[in-house]
Design a protein that fits this description.
This is Twin transmembrane helix small protein. The protein contains 2 helices and no strands. It has about 60 residues and is an all-alpha fold.
């Protein structure tokens, strides 16, 4: 029963984020998207390398 309550609360939180994001969010400019895209690629690559190293040395 507790699991269903937690899942329901998560579902409601996601619905709330979507509604508020559509209402109050503003589109990103192209330069800002390029900047975030660059950082996201670097961070994902670093996380993959860290995860592989963690698994290798355990």
């Amino acid at each position: 029963m507790t699991l269903l309550v937690i899942l329901g609360l998560v579902f409601l939180a996601v619905i709330l984020m979507v509604i508020l994001g559509e209402r109050f969010g503003k589109p990103m400019e192209e330069q800002e998207q390029v900047k975030y895209s660059k950082w996201t690629r670097i961070l994902v690559f670093a996380l993959i390398i860290i995860a592989i190293a963690k698994l290798a040395f355990e």
